[in-house]
Amino acid sequence: GAVVSQHPSWVICKSGTSVKIECRSLDFQATTMFWYRQFPKQSLMLMATSNEGSKATYEQGVEKDKFLINHASLTLSTLTVTSAHPEDSSFYICSAITGTSGVNEQFFGPGTRLTVL
Amino acid sequence: GENVEQHPSTLSVQEGDSAVIKCTYSDSASNYFPWYKQELGKRPQLIIDIRSNVGEKKDQRIAVTLNKTAKHFSLHITETQPEDSAVYFCAASVNQGGKLIFGQGTELSVKP
Lengths: 117, 112
Known about the structure:
heterodimer; A: mainly beta; seven-stranded mixed beta sheet; B: 112 residues; mainly beta; six-stranded mixed beta sheet; five-stranded antiparallel beta sheet; 56% strand
């Protein structure tokens, strides 16, 4: 149980285009999902917290107009990188938590490798 | 906000030796401390976690200790094996919201 999937697993796009990444909880309902970005040989940096039916909460320094997050259902959150540039090339990972207060374990998706040419 | 510092950044040990990775956190409200193993290009895998009401937890060759007063927690791997080679991340979380703040990572290399 507690499986999280991401799609696509990798994507290559031209500079200036937008890319949408999907994060799905396959066998549970995720009231909260998180989006992380990981550059090569670096740590996971939290970008935003996504709650179903409400606006995402972005971490300091993350441009909310560039990284659009939508959490339309209890099993799906999407991250859209708008007007992507080469510096946006990174490994994007989502995660989801299965419960509410007192349950903190996060289940991670397999990640999406974005390369912007 | 929370800040997590992790040391060392790289660690090389001989097979069979022990490995210790240390983390400190800044927010005294943090009460959940997981450790993840990440292989190249893969998702982080939870290997052990500890909550603030416990000082130590062990699972076979892996153990974690927590010192709340010092805001310090450590991962101990005994009898290391080559397949333990990976990048290890510590993290901290405050109960409400559940967001994790990660340490910088430790690249562990176990030499046969």
